[in-house]
Structures are given as C-alpha cells and as structure tokens.
Amino acid sequence: MILAIDVCNEVGSIALLEGTRVREERRLESPDGFGHVLFGAITEMLAAHGVRLSDISLYAVATGPGSFTGVRVGLAAAKGLAYASGKPLAGVTNLEALASLGTGPLRAPIFDARRGDVYAAIYDDALREVVAPAVCPLAEFPLGGAERIEAGPLLAAAVGRLAAERGGVDPAAVEATYVRPSDAELLSTSS
Questions:
Q1: What domains can you pick out in the chain, each with its CATH number?
Q2: Strands 2-6 and 11-18
Q3: For 57-114, how does the pLDDT look when each residue is reduced to its tens digit (9 = 90+)?
C-alpha cells in the first residue's frame, strides 16, 4: 500500500494506492493552509478503506515546485509518517507527475507560478528531463514541439504511481524542489 500526498498548490490531494492501482484520491482544499487538515483527511481516507498506517509500505510526496508553505507541510508530514513507521519515502516533483499524464514523446508540464509566471519543464516519454524545471513567463519558455500539459488540481495519484515504479529511499534524502527563490531570499539579496 502507498500513501501519496500533494499539497504544493491551492488545491491538493491525497491518494491511497495498491501498487500502481489507485484505490482513492481525495481532493483537499484549505484556504488557510493544509497543516491543520492534512492528518485528519489521511485518517478519514485510511479508515474508509480499513487500512492502518502499519499497512502502508511506501509513502510518496510531491516535492514541488509550488507554494513554499505547502511544499514544506507536505514534506514534513510525509517524512514524519515515514520516519515514525520506519518505511521509505519517494519524492516526485509536481512537474514529473503532470508529465506522466501526457502521451507525447516530449511533454511540457505547465502550471501557474503566480506573478505572471509559470513553472515548466520538458520531459521525454520515459520522464527523463530534457529541459530543466524553470519559472518564467510562458512566452519565454522554449516549448518547441512538446505536448503542453496544463495542471489539473489532483496529482497525488500520479505521484503515487511514479513512487510505485521507482521505490523509496531514506526519508532524509528527499528534498524540496522549489525552482524559485523565496520572498525572504529575494529580500535578503536585495538589501
């Protein structure tokens, strides 16, 4: 069993999978942030399927890019669950998860980064990075002939499916994928 978490953007999701088969994916919305609703949602979903945390063999988490707070909340929750249970953790970027939903030989996952920018990258059909993740205005991103894949709100199931294929690692090895410097970093370099 795999428990996957994506709370990197305004709308998040959690998913329960058996291998690559999705049992359920639940939409999460919390305008005040996901920190106070995430564990309750996980508890409810597991209970609905008669699954205990001890039944989970792999945790998966979206590592970003996205909201700095959302990325940190998701990583902290997934790392905590994985550490507490002694289970591995798989980190998957939102861009990889979105690219996995495409069908073309070259796939350009794109989603809103706010401030007039998008997060974007290009992957081949084996999800190998062709153009590194970037944050920029869409008109400046070199799409070429890549299939453009716009972000839908739910990505936890895609994160979980990729985790099932790749396996997990020690939770300490999973890092955030921010792409854009935080506002605090921008302010400290401008002073």
A1: 2-180 (3.30.420.40)
A2: antiparallel
A3: 999 999 999 999 999 999 999 999 999 999 999 999 999 999 999 999 999 999 999 8
Query: Which residues 6+ apart lie within 8 Å of 139 measured at CB?
Result: none
Long-range contacts of 131-137 (CB under 8 A, 24+ apart): 133/65, 133/93, 133/95, 133/177, 133/179, 134/179, 135/65, 135/179, 135/180
Q: Is the pLDDT of residue 31 over 90?
A: no
The one-letter amino acid at 189: T
Question: 138: which 2 tokens?
Answer: 């869409």
Best CA proximity match to 20, nearest among 124, 167, 129, 170: 167
Three-state secondary structure call for residue 89: strand
Q: Which two tokens stand for residue 23?
A: 């049992």
Distance, CA of 107 to CA of 130 (rounded, Å): 9
pTM above 0.90, yes or no: yes
For 66, phi and psi rounded to 5 degrees?
160, -155
